[in-house]
Amino acid sequence: MAIQNINHFIRDVVRYHELASGLKPLVSHPQIISYGNNQGFKFTESEWIAFYESDFALQSEAVQQSILAANPAHWSWAFRQLSVWRGMLMDGAGDGIA
């Protein structure tokens, strides 16, 4: 059930601007988890981390390095954490690199 909640959360962030806008101030995975749960998508930290690590492992080494180098203080940090959300970033969004 939790994987369904994570998938719904990820999908709804893509679909709904107001939900996506809530990611902008987030600077850590625990904050993303808390935000998702507060929006009604119930999943645990371990479930989220497993999902994130699975997505991360599928990325090229260059993409992995850019994820790790992204500046958490940059508004786009949370969007850079998952491949689906990275696709939402437009050219000119900055690179989020510290």
Distance between the terminal alpha carbons, to the nearest Å?
Answer: 36 Å
Helix/sheet category = mainly alpha
Sheet with the most strands, sense and barrel status: none
Tally of helical runs: 6
The rough form would be described as globular
Give me the count of strands. 0
Mean pLDDT: 92
Radius of gyration, rounded?
13 Å
**Estimated helix fraction:** 55-70%
Topology as H/E string?
A: HHHHHH
How many individual domains?
1
Tell me the strand percentage band: under 5%
Low-confidence stretches: none
Offer a concise description of the structure:
This protein is mostly helical and 98 residues long. It has one domain.
Could you walk me through the main structural features you see in this protein, from its secondary elements to its overall organization?
- With 98 residues, the protein is mainly alpha-helical.
- The protein has 6 helices and no strands.
- The chain is globular and about 30 Å long.
- It has one domain.
- The protein is 56% helix and 0% strand.
Question: What descriptors fit this protein?
Answer:
98 residues; mainly alpha
SSE map:
Layout: H1 2-15, H2 17-21, H3 29-38, H4 45-57, H5 61-69, H6 83-86
